[in-house]
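task queued by scheduler; priority normal; single chain, no ligands, no partner chains; default sampling; output format set to structure tokens
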Amino acid sequence: MDHRYLLSGIAATLLLCAPAWGATQSTCYGTTAKGRLEGGVELPAEGPNFTRYSTTAALLGRTYVHSRVRDILLDAYRRLETSAPGMQFKYAETGFAEGGRFRPHKTHQNGLSVDFMVPAVDAEGHSVELPTHPFNKFGYAIEFDAEGRFGEYRIDFPAMAAHLAALHRAALAEGAEVWRVIFDPQLQPRLFATADGAYLRQHLQFSTRRSWVRHDEHYHVDFVVPCRPM
């Protein structure tokens, strides 16, 4: 027997039997504030227009979500490659593979909560990523002023609005929904003044009171996916 044909047959069989990428289906339980997750999936480290906030945090297992949330996020980033070319995005804290208490957050417990660092531009107006490292608590210690400025960085409100609109459209395409967005109420008028602002007002629920942390350097998004009771 020609071993080349034998090896080719074995390889073909393995390919047919191997699970497709993204085949894992998650199950969420309870709520974002009191829940858990089965079959959580890790978000990819980067893509053409996005990256994660920390390799260290990823190694500690802090970038897992429900599989449907993963699909929504990646679909939104794909949409933005066309609708917002050249803009760069960065996701932050999500949750553990099994969900549960996720300190210091009060939510992020069942795979349906995601933090995103605000997109930014530099002094020349170029799309840039916020610096996220241990010395600024992986970006969470950054403080923007009332105009959305921090040193040489300014919040890119049009990019942020485009991202939120893309997340909502991607969620609907997945048969899911966006429950709420938590972002500093003082900065929200600048977000609503963008080209996508009217869409956001119509379709998304935003926080109206300042949270226990300000949410100026990041915005928190909760998704709606059917979950089982605890």
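post-processing summary
- Residues 37 and 219 are 22 Å apart (CA to CA).
- The two ends are 57 Å apart (CA to CA).
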